[in-house]
Amino acid sequence: MNNVERIFTVIVRILYGVASAGLTAISLAMIGAAGMGIWEALGSGEPIKQALLNGIGLVIVAIAVFDVAKYLIEEEVLRDRELRSAREARETTTKFVVIIVIAVSLEALVFILGAASQDLSLLVYPAALLAVSALLILALAVYLRLSSMAEQRLGECHGED
Hints:
mainly alpha; 161 residues
C-alpha cells in the first residue's frame, strides 16, 4: 500500500470512528430522554402506561442506533482488511439487516401495545411494520440463499472444494 492509500485509510477510519462516537452519544441521549419522560410522567401524575411505552420505543431505537455504531467500529475501524470474499460480504450484510429487522419488529410491538390501548383502528400501522419486518426477513433469506449459491459456483469454477 502506498502513502496516499495509507493516509486515505487513516482518514476513513477516523471518520467512521467519529460517526460511531456520534451515534453512540445520540443513543445515550435517547435513553436519557426515555428516562426523563418516565420520570416526568411519574411526577406529574399522568397515566404512566403511555410514558412507559414511549420510553420503550425510544430505548429500542437507541439500541438499534448503538448497534449501527458498534457495527461501524467493528467492520470499518477495527478491521485491518477489506472484505475479501463473498462469505465475508454476506456475513456483514446479514449483521446489518438483522439489526434493522430487530429494531423494526420491536418498534412494531411497542406500537401494537400503544394502539391496542387507544383505538383499534390504529393497529393497521404497526401491522404494516410487522409485515415490512417479515418482508425484510424473507428478502434476507433470498439474499443469503442466492449469494451462497453464487459463492459455491465460484468455488467450483476455481476448482475449490
